[in-house]
Please model this.
Amino acid sequence: MTIQENCPAAATNGERATLNYQGKPTDFPLRHGSIGPSVMDIGKLYKDTGCFSYDPGFTSTANCASKITFIDGDKGELLYRGYPIEQIAEYSNFLATCFLLLNGELPTNEQFRDFRRTISMHTMVHEQMTRFFTGFRRDAHPMAVMVGVVGALSAFYHDSTDISNPEHRRIATNRMIAKMPTIAAMAYKYSIGHPFIYPRNDLDYTSNFLQMCFAVPCEPYIVNPVVARALDRIFILHADHEQNASTSTVRLAGSSGANPFACIASGIACLWGPAHGGANEAALTMLQEIGTVERIPEFIAKAKDKSSGFRLMGFGHRVYKNYDPRAKVMQKTCHEVLDALDKRDDPLLKVAMELEKIALQDDYFVSKKLYPNIDFYSGITLRAIGFPVEMFTVLFAVARTVGWIAQWREMIEDPEQRIGRPRQLYVGPSRREFPL
Ligand code: SDX
Model:
């Protein structure tokens, strides 16, 4: 498997931006990417001006140069290694997308066969890991279980935690991608009191995950091909998304030299938040709370009332100021799954579609460019497939693991990257002597 050469940050072409501060001009090199906004390299800002830049939430800050994923929020465009998400979702599969994100190119048939066999050889977890689950209450949120169990993986794989060793990085990558579905399925089975189901290497990645979740030892389990294809596409949609909060968490954790399993556990913890990956669970809960089309105006009014603290979950995005391209594919997939499972009359789908229609005609949402994001339709689809709402963000984590790992590897291999250590604007008390 060829690994993309080190990711050299975009070269500067000599252009510079000048900042005038306290009457003194300071120049900063401009750097241009292959597409998208250029950057002003302000690495010397503090040294030259004595000032820090200030950008809570990093709305205007690039933390790295990357070749993996590109988002144009105004156009509503998402590219994985240059390929539009809609085309990948339509013509590829999740494991081939993993290969693409990790290596920069789509796999040949032979490369795909090798990669699939490699991943299959790592799908089991150490049998002793089953004991971690019994330490949790059965009603523990599965994301809590995922953070704990994935973090514990490093206790079993001392042979692949030397991050400076490319071979260790490769093995850890394959282990993470292969074992996440197994651990996620175990978290679900534990929550319902079912026995764990072992992986089946004769099945493709997503079909294997479905059987580990929904098979029982007492009878054969037949994978529904429409559901398997839909879930595989949902995994593709969630695989990577540039420098989102959980990916930035993984990069920051990795910048200290932490082992990859611990870094992925930190990404899972961050993804859990309702403003991020937890929004799919929160969006479905919101639709259930709305309940009927008649109550939509009441919730739209609440979302527009700042004092309510309520937001339409599954709406809005830091980058997309147009329709999230994944949400369009998600909506289509939602209809396919509900049709295939004869659940097209799901009342929540009616509420979701009417809520979207009303919101997209409302000045508040139009003026703030709030469109449905990937989390808006995913919950209805996952519930129809049979997953409880608590598992929605776990599925997001299963899919996003490849993005986290690809970005983590790129960070490790980027000669420009060093430990992340932001500064602050201090607004606390000046020095004062301790009262004796
Ligand atoms: C994901 O970053 C990624 O790429 C994430 C992700 C990925 O793949 O990794 O795409 C996955 O996390 C998708 C987002 C899922 N989250 C939600 O659906 C939760 C609801 N949405 C939000 O809370 C919000 O829109 C965010 C968190 C997604 C974006 O927040 P921002 O960019 O910080 O925007 P903001 O909070 O400053 O909001 C801007 C304005 C505010 O009003 P004003 O202060 O300008 O008057 O829009 C309002 C907000 O009050 N607003 C909403 C709203 N989202 C923003 N008002 C009502 N409902 C909403 N959902």
In short: The first strand starts at residue 12 and ends at 21.
